[in-house]
Amino acid sequence: MASKLHIKKGDLVFVNSGESKGQQGRVLSVLVKESRAIVEGVNMVSKHTKPNAKHPQGGIIKKEAPVHISNLMLIDPTSGKPTRIGHKMNSEGKLVRFSKKSGEEIK
Predict the structure, then answer these.
(1) Architecture of the CATH domain 12-50+58-106
(2) Are 106 and 27 in contact, with CB atoms under 8 Å apart?
(3) What is the pTM (predicted TM-score) of this model?
(4) How far apart are the first and last CA of the chain?
(5) Contact in structure between 44 and 63 (CB atoms under 8 Å)
(6) Bridging pattern class, strands 44-49 and 72-75
């Protein structure tokens, strides 16, 4: 069973290790079962494709490959720096994510 992930689709993240270390991007999708995320413009790979309706020419296409969740850190909405994430109850009794760096709630 996959544990609770600290990253959601649409989050701005920082890559802290691997081939794309130091890059930032927006999360396009999260693969929960594999604990991986696809981040815009990060971990680009060349994919050979046959001609089809979408790409009538075929050839080599650059696309994003999944990155492991452990290599990603959320960007703090206030400072713009990478931060760790915590979970806590807000005033309405709803479980929300918050930045460990600034204490700010993450929408």
Answers:
(1) Roll (2.30)
(2) no
(3) 0.83
(4) 26
(5) yes
(6) unpaired
Distances in Å between the Cα of 63 and the Cα atoms of 26, 39, 44 are 14, 10, 5
Task: Locate 39 and state its tokens.
Answer: 């981040």
Please report, as a single letter, which amino acid is at residue 10. Answer: G
Distance (Å, whole) CA 16 – CA 81: 12
- Residues in CB range of 21: below 8 A, 6 or more apart: 15
Q: What is the pLDDT along the chain (107 residues), one digit of tens a residue?
A: 456 789 999 999 999 998 999 999 999 999 999 999 999 999 999 999 999 998 899 999 999 999 999 999 999 988 899 999 999 998 898 999 999 988 888 88
CA–CA dist 14, 82 (Å, integer): 6
